Amino acid sequence: MNKDLNDNYKGNILVVDDTPANLRLLVGLLTEKGYKVRPVPSGELALSAAKGMPPDLILLDIMMPGINGYEVCEKLKSDERTKEIPVIFISAINDVFDKVKAFTAGGVDYITKPFQIEEVLARVETHLSICYLQINLKAKNEELLKTLQELKATQNQLIQSEKMAALGQLIAGIAHEINTPLGAIRSSIGNITDFLTKNLEQLPKFLQNLSPQRQEDFFNILRTPLQQNSSLSSKEKRQLKKALQQQIQDQGIDNADSIASTLVNLGIGDNIQPFLPLLKDPDMEIILRNAYQLFSVQKSAQTITTATDRAAKVVFALRSYARYDDDGEKVEANIIEGIETVFTLYQNQFKQGVELVRYYGDLPNINCYPDELNQIWTNLIHNALQAMDHKGTLTINVHQEDSNIVVSITDTGKGIPPEIITKIFEPFFTTKATGEGSGLGLDIVKKIVEKHQGIIEVESVPDRTKFTVSLPINSK
């Protein structure tokens, strides 16, 4: 299945019952709610239908001639094609032993006949939502694992190049940028799994027991934090809690401190008037607790999306940086995009004490070899960070002068001594300790600049070293 929780797809349901009246009732009920329904009157036909076109959910009777519901479920769970399909048993049997047997066979839920329409719909919607959430989480996890594998393959391709010399200094930072969102995903999945394990069976019953007004209040609370566009600081949360606590106390409601804390965590604003009927309800604490648990699931799902996007951004930057097109043809490219790719790879180092200042003009694309230009920015940025011992201000200015694009990279490091500044572009010249540099970085940078018919210059005094690269927009 490849479903998205935000699209209009309701679900494909297979209904299995040997009683025609039950089939007609369930088909009519579910079809009216927008589900696609396939009715079958026997266990044999159910197995054939499920394997031929796997549904999203199966409603399964137990007492049927031939193969009974338990046997059908066991066969479904033993087949790779159908083992993940959730099965809800619907039966007139109300014995605890039979219910246990149904869950042992692989069922996810059990509804006793004669059933309530609202109960069937609530349980169907709940299990389909859980199923789709699990599918999307699995897909996100597989996508992240795939990008991590691509990262490893890309690093292997770079091992013999000069790029890898600079990239080797970044591996720890890149690993951190990948591991941080991976840890967030792992934690969020744990939260979601814990919620489903502890609350899944009770949730439909909880919703059924709520009055229509309390149901509306319950879902309004869940919708409120999703509409929030900004996060509050710790100080702002404390101020909001104090304001809410005072309002709750003014209404004569007990446990004002605890209730205010829960409302703040749920993202409720500073006005409790819309929720006063709920807060005065005798079952208020149970309702708020369930709302907060579901809100935590929503928040975990949002965390997974954010973490996946963050990891994908780092991987995309690395892939863009690592790509090498050796076809001998120049292409039009945006210089700022290449520079930002390099900054993404160095993002972790900027967090450690480097202030990054950007001045970008409105620039045209440049005719160039973009992969080679990325090597220029990598070397110059890497050298600047080392010169500052990763503490200071790195300023980059990109603007147009006549028919050229000018890029200047300035650091606040100790500077280059006058006696060696004329030698820094010579091959194998380096002031770095053994093993830290080959002495080829700036030589390669100069050759790439000259290949583009450009100029590179350097000026340096203590606390200010500036490399300036001027490249023609339309070099041949």
From the structure above, extract its key features.
single chain, 476 residues, alpha/beta, Rossmann fold, 3 domains, 5-stranded parallel beta sheet, 5-stranded mixed beta sheet, 17 helices, 12 strands
How would a textbook summarize the main sheet?
5 strands, parallel
Q: What are the segments in which pLDDT stays under 50 over at least 5 consecutive residues?
A: 1-6, 434-438
Kindly report the spatial arrangement of strands forming the biggest sheet.
2-1-3-4-5
Q: What structural category arises from helix and sheet content?
A: alpha/beta
Structural domain count: 3
> Kindly state the mean pLDDT as a whole number?
81
C-alpha geometry = elongated
Strand-residue fraction? 5-15%
Radius of gyration: 31 Å
Beta-strand segment tally? 12
How many distinct helices? 17
Query: Whole-Å distance between the termini?
Result: 52 Å
Helix-strand string: EHEHEHEHEHHHHHHHHHEHHEEHEEHEE
What proportion of the residues is helical, as a percent range? 40-55%
